[in-house]
## 1
Amino acid sequence: MNFTKKNFTLDHIRQELVRLEDSIIFALIERSQFQKNDIIYKCGGINIKEFDGSFLEYFLHELECAHAKVRRYTSPDETPFTTNLPDSVLPPIQFPKLLVPNNVNINDQLMKIYINEIVPKITDEGDDGNHGSAATKDCHVLQLLSRRIHFGKFVAEAKFNDPLLQPKYIELIRNKDKCGINDLLTNLAVEEKLLRRLRRKAAIFGAEIDGDGIPTLKEEDNKIPLDVVCDMYEKYVIPLTKVVEVEYLLERLKYYPSFVPEF
Amino acid sequence: MNFTKKNFTLDHIRQELVRLEDSIIFALIERSQFQKNDIIYKCGGINIKEFDGSFLEYFLHELECAHAKVRRYTSPDETPFTTNLPDSVLPPIQFPKLLVPNNVNINDQLMKIYINEIVPKITDEGDDGNHGSAATKDCHVLQLLSRRIHFGKFVAEAKFNDPLLQPKYIELIRNKDKCGINDLLTNLAVEEKLLRRLRRKAAIFGAEIDGDGIPTLKEEDNKIPLDVVCDMYEKYVIPLTKVVEVEYLLERLKYYPSFVPEF
């Protein structure tokens, strides 16, 4: 996470989010090469010694333990899915204080949507036995989507610091007017441009390429259906990011005017 | 790993390797967004409680522990970099016996080449502080390259089972003629086609895409230099795969004629 006083702007945050789109599309394509493998999502579907949950939950927790040991979740742009994570083996580092203290974490909601709405659209039905590979790719998509969605905290903080809009935000937050905050946060032109861009990116990165390295240019050959990525953003990623933004702003006022982002 | 009697053919193995190229290119692009962050590769570069090695080694071992618990390294197409891995928490599964028992593992060699030859070519010099992110992407590239290279065992087994060539292989193996085996394994036409294809894939998947979703089509904008992927394959991936093939074949004869691949 690299913000400085100079680049903690909406423009820079948006650049980060645009780059993250590529990573998310790559990760979805990687997951899509395996079948749905439903059993990995079912509690007790695969019998795991002394663990009560799904295979994906077990594996994600083990991965998050490895990441926690190297300090991943002390970074303000990382949000774990599981709890009871070990301490870091590294000395703590001081991140710039860009956000107010908050516990906004909607990963549970994201997990449900991912399993029920996204996996079925990018995979073929069936079980190809590649449970470990599928779960590995799932964890990767989930970590990226979580980062994308919780980046809403930075978006919200940057928008709140706009001197022209701050009085309006303060009023809406005081009234706990979630819809009003949501409307004020929304920039339809940005969203429409994003959706157009995503469809094109999905076509380019997901292109089926023949043995000579030439894209087949047939939409039905694309590694993931072309509409999946923009539908996923439109229906889930953008709305969930705004849930994070609104939740964050509701906590923001407690620290007003004492908190200003520090670098 | 999905081989059946019907698809354990050179053609099918090559299809797997062609798909793996996409994953490797995606992973290299993902690593390239962070600076070199040299400190993560140096023994003791980052101080880790009770661990004597580099940050990457520490993190890779922790990740491999998580993967070992879900049985990754019992699969014949997966080869760990680190040792002292925990047992799996899952019941063992019976993989088809496609390979003779062997301990061919050249991951140490791969690791050195990756750090010294590949990372410098895909990253910018410098330290951007994203040590955890860079190491995460490194592990991903390493796991994919390791899988690619050790797939040489399947390639070698399939080639050895060609009834026209088997007598020749047996003679060369008896004479421990590594160069002769290497020559017999080599198919220059396939290699040249592969290198051409890789350059094109690197151009497509690494394309810089503007805010509207249109590729800039400028080579210098590509997320990784266009020659890096084919150079890496030509200088390291193909030769290391052949090292694996030759090493595997040297162990193969002990089990001849008793072993035939079983599905």
Note: Chain B has a mean pLDDT of 95.
## 2
Amino acid sequence: MLIVKKFGGSSVANKERVLNVANKIAKDYKEGHQVVVVLSAQGDTTDELIKKAKEINPTPSKREMDMLLTTGEQQSVALMAMALETLGLPSISLNSFQVGIKTTSTYSNSRLKRIDTDRMLEEIERKNIVIVTGFQGINRYDDYTTLGRGGSDTTAVALAAALNADKCEIFTDVDGVYTADPRVVPNARKLDEITYDEMLELATLGAKVLHNRSVELAKKYNVDLVVRSSLSDAEGTVVKEECKMEKTLVSGVVSDKNTARIAVVGIKDEPGKAFQLFSILSKKNINVDIILQSIGRDGTKDITFTVAEDNVEEAVALIENKMSVITGQKIECDKKVSKISIVGSGMQTNAGVATKMFEALYDAGINIHMISTSEVKITVLIEDKYTKEAVNVIHEAFKLGEINK
Amino acid sequence: MLIVKKFGGSSVANKERVLNVANKIAKDYKEGHQVVVVLSAQGDTTDELIKKAKEINPTPSKREMDMLLTTGEQQSVALMAMALETLGLPSISLNSFQVGIKTTSTYSNSRLKRIDTDRMLEEIERKNIVIVTGFQGINRYDDYTTLGRGGSDTTAVALAAALNADKCEIFTDVDGVYTADPRVVPNARKLDEITYDEMLELATLGAKVLHNRSVELAKKYNVDLVVRSSLSDAEGTVVKEECKMEKTLVSGVVSDKNTARIAVVGIKDEPGKAFQLFSILSKKNINVDIILQSIGRDGTKDITFTVAEDNVEEAVALIENKMSVITGQKIECDKKVSKISIVGSGMQTNAGVATKMFEALYDAGINIHMISTSEVKITVLIEDKYTKEAVNVIHEAFKLGEINK
């Protein structure tokens, strides 16, 4: 079996952890598997390099920043190869030039374009454990680029796809995907399986287990992903196209406090107003989430939407600046809100899921401000002080803590 | 003018020094020169990386060690590019993959084979200051290799040769080549010029200004080398084929305490004995320096030679092991010796130089144990407690502290 294993920065933060990871790799190798490992930079290395750079130049060019940061992963892979040597195992570390990890030209946030497999296959053929730098690649100018947040997960999935690996294991500091955040819901349960689509919704909604791009890529190339802990031997959660068991009604419930509601009140009820409003925001790369438009009355309508809390001030300023075009009478804004979502691939064929969610909130006396739904998700906006309670009552209502639901 | 400027690790050890070097580079660029910069890893970076590696694996493979260490120079070049950005100057950092610095296969001590100039010339054409990682290259397996001690000097000279640069400036923490070590001889004088051959003798003899390999390379490709201080604007010393002024009788005097004398006594006076003796040592890469063979008497002869002090124990053990072949009766060994040498390209056409040196030592009551001469150098072995005095009396005898000698 060909296995791609990815370990994040905290999993290789120091000597002990490097050796711990080496032992995990050794186990698979000794069982006769072919192993390709993807590593991030150790612990705080990336942050330290950024700090060092900013002391010299507060706004360094992204090209040089990538040149600097890519050294972090190269150090990780070399050290891991040395750790494997102490276990008597043959291994070789490779950076993006050596593998041939080709990306788009953009620095600091590039996308993977192509991965050459020749060198990796050659080394696998030689019985080497292959250790590859995550998070980075080279563009058509032969310059280093980095893949942005969650980049190493994406590298791992892409290598698994390119090598046609049997599975891709992503090791993190949690032991899988849960029905809810265990810090919020004490009886949250680890899921054995979850579909790509569900995982995508969870990832977007802020369950910080896997980055969206890696899940999208896994779905596209049908890579069997496993999320598991680097600190225990627990089984983890498998992310795949179709789950073996019957489609889960609801897989999990997640919350996101980093959200704010903006309402533009008294807009003339004419065509094109929503377009004008949101084009102002999209031009500045401000993502709008839930959108709600009131029915026109007295020749005016209200448009309410949510943005990430960090973007509120900028969004409000941009809209105020164009109020004459949008024809709104005033802007209201509320940061004390929270998004609560349930995710489950079964809900599209099951009526009553939304009802059950709303009922649970009603029973707890929690008011719903806005609602948004997709094929595998229902999101509501509530006052943020109820976040923890809301997650708990919904988790309870769907009996997510119990194995047979 | 195309100038290659090399700065060592201590010259870029921290933020302030990086910016100081950036200003030196800026000065040349603003005067209209094309500038290529070669950098070592910052300060103690290399030592720290070695320490980190050895904590994980006391004897890591050289291949992985090179993979680890090469990150040090890559960080330096990226940070320097950022520093130049703050001065508003266009620059680009390049590592060995990007330049195409090709070396022999050996890890940790490779030799340069070929340097591609395409990318560098392209960047120079775009008016960029080009900043290149020293000390490293890639071999035919596309693996990083490092060049061993003094590697960055060698990179700088090789780039200057490949680019046909007008000069190659090596910046160090001293402001040039001196007639003697200024810490030993208070009135030692900085030389304006010195020939490659003289510099080679000085480098070999332990004047730690330039590494031998870089001087050999400069001689081979006739690169005008300048050794100067990164901390001052002093002119430095030019190393070239022929010095403008009349050939210097004696350019400088140097000492080397890292030397020991071994005598193999009572060897049968038969052909092949010297060969047998020294082949034992050369097989183990132990360099032998001065060799003296006594005239055969009573059917036996003595062979005396010097090796670096670090190699004494190994050398003695190797010889003892083969004493039956060598037919020696006993081995004597003395670590308390020191080599004193005078170097000067004029001495080959001037009689009396050796005499004057010996006279100076005789006047000071210093006994000479061994003598060795080359075209541009005379070396004597003395008791090491007289080292400082010997250097001073010789410096004085040749009036090296005076400008017109």
Note: The CA atoms of residues 59 and 246 of chain B lie 52 Å apart.
